[in-house]
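Section handout 9: paired folding examples.
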Amino acid sequence: MPRALDDITVVSFGQIAQGPVATQMLGDLGAEVLKIERPGGEWMRGFSMANEYIEGESLHFQFFNRNKRSIELDIKDDEHREVLYDICEEADVVVENFRPGVMDRLGFGYKKLSERNEELIYASASGFGSTGPYADRPGQDLIVQGMSGLMSITGDRDDLPTPQSVAIADLHSATYLAFGILAALHYRDRTGKGQRLEADLLSAAVDLQLQEIGTYANTKAELDLGEDGLGNVYHPAPYGVYETADGHLVLSLVKPSKLGEILDIDAITDVETWEEAYEDRDGIMASIGAVLRTDTTETWIAKLLEHDVWCGPVKDIPDVVDDPQVRENGMIRTIDHPTLGELTVTGTPIRMSKTPPYIRRHPPLAGEHTEEILREYGYPTSMVRRDDD
């Protein structure tokens, strides 16, 4: 079956998360992704969540690097640099997420490569952008969550600033990087011209708050997190998280008056407007919480869904891995890995009728395809430096 991007070659200098996730998305859509790694492999091969390694391989690395081939080259070695120039000259896309200016100093910036390949799409990702007062700072997801305001609107009123427990800025920025590459490819199809594009963590984190930042910028409305479980700094009650007899559930946008009737809470049956629901958020949520703690999550969800209330249980990660809808959507997958055996990964969160994304290659071992790629570009495999050389 043809794939949406199976005529596209992507050269990835990406490391850690931002660049690798973007190029993995393109690989899932069929692009040929050549992962350029320094001798010994990229930084992420030596770091793994929970310090978990299987057969010496970082699990963290596996989740960002499927559907790629790895070639180890020393970007500071003259002979290897020529190989890299040839590879980039034939590429459709180059992706890098070093600090601004690093690729220019190494001789692989946009100006240099576009002189050799005027149709090249050159995608750069960084922490804060290539210009401005923060451009030279180290950028990382947690740092940006703090600097973007994202932590300040998460959690409860008396909590410390609360980070998301996922690399949300990294992943959102990677998505925009892939989105920009697809737009640039479409433009090139129409004009024959390549271009440079950028994405950065700070802008992605700001974009995630388009509702909250927009509301504050236009109204200066007070940013009050609420006492307990409020789901959004600017949303009315009952929007939030509630304890039940055996767990937790979430309530979305539903008028308190409707909930009062369903749950027999007289104190809120007269709260019929969003204005009232916003003004007394803590009191309304406390009234609802007292009732929901008296029975199980399953019981309340069944009763609330009977009345078409927007609600759901709070699940933990083990629940999600086995969730039937998650499985139905193809978001839990297994692939064969040469050293790890059967590896469980998440799938691609889109479905396409004619060019569906798919997993055709395991995350590569460091330099696994070096000799193969050298042969394809007409270079002798004797260039490979082995440990015993």
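Moving on to protein 2 of 2.
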Amino acid sequence: MGPIEKQWRNSLSRRQAVRRLAGFLAASPLLKSQQDPFRDHSRVPGIDELLTSFDFEAVAYAKLPGQTYHYTAHGTESEYTLRRNREAFEWVKLVPRAVADVSSVDASTEVLGVKMKFPLMIAPSSGHGALHPEGEVATHRGSSAASGTPMILSYGASVRAEEVLKAGSGPMWSQLYGREKFEENLPLVESAQAAGFQAIVLTVDQTAAYYERVQHTQHLSGRSNRGGRSSRGRRGAEGDETSNPYHIRYDRLWYNWPFIERIRPYIKVPFLAKGILTPEDARMCVESGLDGIIVSNHGGRSMDYGTSTLEVLPEIVAAAAGRIPVLIDSGFRRGSDVLKALALGAKAVCLGRVPRWGLASFGDAGVQRVLEIMQAELVLALAHTGRPNLASIDRTLVRTNFPWAK
């Protein structure tokens, strides 16, 4: 065999040449073919498979960045109050009624002129945009689809109020955090009323500025949260430990009853105070001209080693003496939880974390689904206790065993 033939024999075939060219192109960084091929194929359950509100929390946890999830989940400092809110439901037992006609159960009610198919509302909570791209717009759309569940729009909403109002047909109330300079409150009140909000809810508790869980997980999220919140209630800067070593919310320590009495004439819609935990404050609400009370400890985010809302509810209801309605939030997860509060005198229950879990899980469909689950649980609990409607509920429906009453 001559040299030319040997060269031809050892040269690339057309197929080999094409293969090598393809390998060269595939290795190009411009084609991003060198990415890590691992993909997480863990199965996320479908929305119809979720049976309780707790199921939605698990999905929200899986979908959200850790920092975002813990913002919704955490309580103040040791989180004792957060835990006590849930523990309190173990101290109240439902009493079944074996013989009662509950072939038809009607859970409808009316609160301050707002007709509701169920005694459930969405409590104000900020920053829904971190949970879903549409934020409070999706929340309102989902709550409206769930039998027109009313929603209290947070003062710290991530979407303009006008956009949220247009998103659904359900009733909407507006949250207000008071400003120390009185004149700064008037535009907020006037714009809320002009926009069509049907009530204004003034949050009066001194929300905590320090969350230990945030400090424990700050380096796990890739971001630093040193200082927690600043002395004015915003995210802290590097030197906050020096300027505000005790993490006190100075922007709210000025709250007083004269402020409420002064602003009351400017509010032409029902006016409620959220954050009431004592009968003394409940009586002051009545005397100051408020139209309603929301018993709340900010979902365990306001003060460490505080009482649960459920255990103080009866004495606050007694102090209000039927003159104004008493609503409640903090720790409610099941329809049976709601029924216990109704039996102890609450007019309606506001849900904070539950709709946030629904929103983070499946957007507006998740909000609708989780609310409908709690509505169905409430109807079932009413049937099991032999109560065909809310008017038939009284204290005989429950037996309480609060530790401090022993």
